[in-house]
Amino acid sequence: MGRGSPSILLSADVTKGIAAMRVHLIFGFLGAGKTTLLLNLLRNPDPNGPTAVIVNEFGEAGVDGAILRGTHVDVLEYASGCFCCSLKGALLDGLRELRQGRLIVRVFVEASGVAQAEELIAPLADGAGALSFAVGPSIAVFDAARYDHLSDMLGEFLDGQIRHADVALLNKIDLVPADAAEEIRRKIAGKMSGRPVFCAVRGDVDAAFLLEAAAGRAAAGEKPGHGVPAGLDGVSSAVLAAGSDLKRRAVEGFFRRLPPSVWRAKGFLTIEGIPMLAQYVPGQLELTPAAAPDHRQLILIGRGMDQAAIAGNFAETARSFSRF
């Protein structure tokens, strides 16, 4: 798949024509739970008409598009870059494609985990008139278990997500004590200027309640920045092929040994004969059954990763513990 070219997964039975379209931007750092939230929002078809999703993945290969297969929506998937940097213009191109000849009434845009919120909202606001769509509410997703650490590490990047969100979702509150979750919620609410903050476990929140919680609004007024925000310089991705059938304990051991330079990993593996979706952030690993994937591989994102060493460790894990 070339840079900037979408992988198109069409599943909705849509009728040709022009209809009002509303665009919701979902952003949050790597592993916050954006795709999980999106799956929950898509559980029930929109009674007003078809829904579509635009997914942006920073890594070379897409995983989220595969996760979304089987839903009742059309999916445009862009990998190998970010809408706020190397894929500028691709977002509006995708919306233009969905707008032409389809009665799409709602579009969710899942930004990459390293996207700058202001760099996404500004072009959406500029293109809304020309393409006849409405923007918002935009949703920022935060990981309760890692919020304080990421706030210290990323600073303005995380604050920018709060500043440009119409609604904030504090996710994974089951991973922290109740009083700690409430303290984090208050921190976020203190920066939201009265805009709503919801809490959730695994992104489970009432879709109508969340989407109607705030009216769409344009960018926050300050001029958008450019380039890579402080704290995200040097971010890169790697792909690990996973062709063999692995033992669960081997997979768990591999993730436990990943260095702090790996911020996020996700992909499809076969573990003891069962296709599994693996999702990892430091201190958190989820292995869940999944449909048989087209490709078995892991996508890693981080800063300063020794990709050769990590690939070697994974290959050694596969050789040592794969089933014969």
From TrEMBL:
<keyword id="KW-0547">Nucleotide-binding</keyword>
<dbReference type="InterPro" id="IPR051316">
    <property type="entry name" value="Zinc-reg_GTPase_activator"/>
</dbReference>
<protein>
    <recommendedName>
        <fullName>CobW C-terminal domain-containing protein</fullName>
    </recommendedName>
</protein>
<dbReference type="InterPro" id="IPR003495">
    <property type="entry name" value="CobW/HypB/UreG_nucleotide-bd"/>
</dbReference>
<dbReference type="GO" id="GO:0005737">
    <property type="term" value="C:cytoplasm"/>
</dbReference>
<keyword id="KW-0143">Chaperone</keyword>
<comment type="function">
    <text>Zinc chaperone that directly transfers zinc cofactor to target proteins, thereby activating them. Zinc is transferred from the CXCC motif in the GTPase domain to the zinc binding site in target proteins in a process requiring GTP hydrolysis.</text>
</comment>
<comment type="similarity">
    <text>Belongs to the SIMIBI class G3E GTPase family. ZNG1 subfamily.</text>
</comment>
<dbReference type="InterPro" id="IPR036627">
    <property type="entry name" value="CobW-likC_sf"/>
</dbReference>
<dbReference type="InterPro" id="IPR027417">
    <property type="entry name" value="P-loop_NTPase"/>
</dbReference>
<dbReference type="GO" id="GO:0016787">
    <property type="term" value="F:hydrolase activity"/>
</dbReference>
<dbReference type="Pfam" id="PF02492">
    <property type="entry name" value="cobW"/>
</dbReference>
<dbReference type="Pfam" id="PF07683">
    <property type="entry name" value="CobW_C"/>
</dbReference>
<keyword id="KW-0378">Hydrolase</keyword>
<feature type="domain" description="CobW C-terminal">
    <location>
        <begin position="235"/>
        <end position="318"/>
    </location>
</feature>
<dbReference type="InterPro" id="IPR011629">
    <property type="entry name" value="CobW-like_C"/>
</dbReference>
<dbReference type="GO" id="GO:0000166">
    <property type="term" value="F:nucleotide binding"/>
</dbReference>
